[in-house]
Structure formats: C-alpha cells, structure tokens
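User: What would this chain look like folded?
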Amino acid sequence: MSTPLPPDARTAPADLRIARLRLAYDTPRGPHTVVDGFDLALPAGRIGCLLGPSGCGKSTVLRAIAGFEPVREGEIHVGERLVSSPTVHVPPEARQVGLMFQEYALFPHLDAAANVGFGLRRLPRAARQQRVREMLALVGLGDMAGRYPHELSGGQQQRIALARALAPAPALILLDEPFSNLDGATRERLTAEVRDILRAAGQTAVLVTHNAAEARAMADFVGVMHGGRLKDWTATQD
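Assistant: Here's the prediction, encoded as structure tokens.
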C-alpha cells in the first residue's frame, strides 16, 4: 500500500512512462527474459489496460511498476520520478502506488471503515476518519462502515478494497485481474462501477486482464501483450 500523506499534501495523479523495459528471471541456464522492449505512455488521470493471455508478461509488468520485480534494462517513471532502472530501485512503499489485489485481501477481523483506513494510520484520527468517510461515499458504501467482510457481498468487498487502495491518494493505482472471481453479470456491472469511481477520483490506473470486453469497457487505452512484448497501445472510444 502507498505511504499515507497528510490531507494538505496528497499526491496528485501522475502519468506513467515506461521505456525499453526488459524483465528477466535467473535460472540455472542463465536469465530467462519475460518482458522485452516494452514501451508505454499513460497520461495522468487516465485508465490503461494490459490485455493478453496467461503467461504473456502483463502481470510481471504490473509487479515491476509496483516495485516487486527488478528491472534488467529500461526505465519506469511515475510522474517526474524515476522509480525503476538497472541502477535505481525505489522501494514499493515509497512509490505512492496503490494496489488492488485479485483476491481483495481484506482483513476479516476489521470492519469496512477500518479496512479502508488501514493505510492511513499515521494521519491524525480526525483526518483519518474524514478520509475514510470520503472513500466510502465515493464507492457508494457510506452506510456499510461497520460491516465486516463476511457480511458484504463479493461486489461490496471489491469496492471496499478499491476504497482502501484509493484512500492514501496514490499517484497511480494498479489493478490485477480484479473481476476474475466474479460471475458474468456481476463482473459487467462492477467493471462499469469501478471505471466510474476511478474517473470520479481523477485517478491514473493500470488494469491487467485477459478479457477483451472488460478491457474495452474499462480503459481509455488498451495494450495487447504477446510473448512479453506490447504489440499495440491504442486509445479507446468513450
């Protein structure tokens, strides 16, 4: 999760720029390249999607943006900050990047408000409570603050997870297959809801999915990945 900021110093949404990115794993036979020659530019406040089948490298790119994968070649910039290169590695907690996991990862022993406020513990109590109220209202769950995860539907849990990721006002938010555990009808409805929430927040976001319809419905820019390379990066029609 992002390092929390005081209310008067919240991070503005930032653009994302990736140039000549190569990611590889070490094996007994030497480095195995997973992503190579990857370039991407996403303007601030827009939603981008990496689309492709399992094993194409899209989740590895997401992990590199978050700071969990080292960069063999190339650079990753979040706004004006160089956060990854072969010689620079800003740790994940210092990148001002929010994460929304596939499995939501809500704390079962905390109610919705406490889950949303988990990354804001360094803020004064009043400021933290205000920010939690703002985020619950943004995702349409202002009346669910005292509910525990097991008392919420899958869609409600997802929106609480999104509110928690947005609460520290990250420069960028990353969503890793956030709808994959939902049935078709719920998935379609929540795709639109999450898109609208991110746009209302003016948030820069990168989504990873293997669902083409989901990518087109969600994103302002869609990139098709195959064999570790970005084959296309195209603006979608509103």
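Confidence is low (pLDDT under 50) at residues 1-9. If you want, I can go into more detail on any region.
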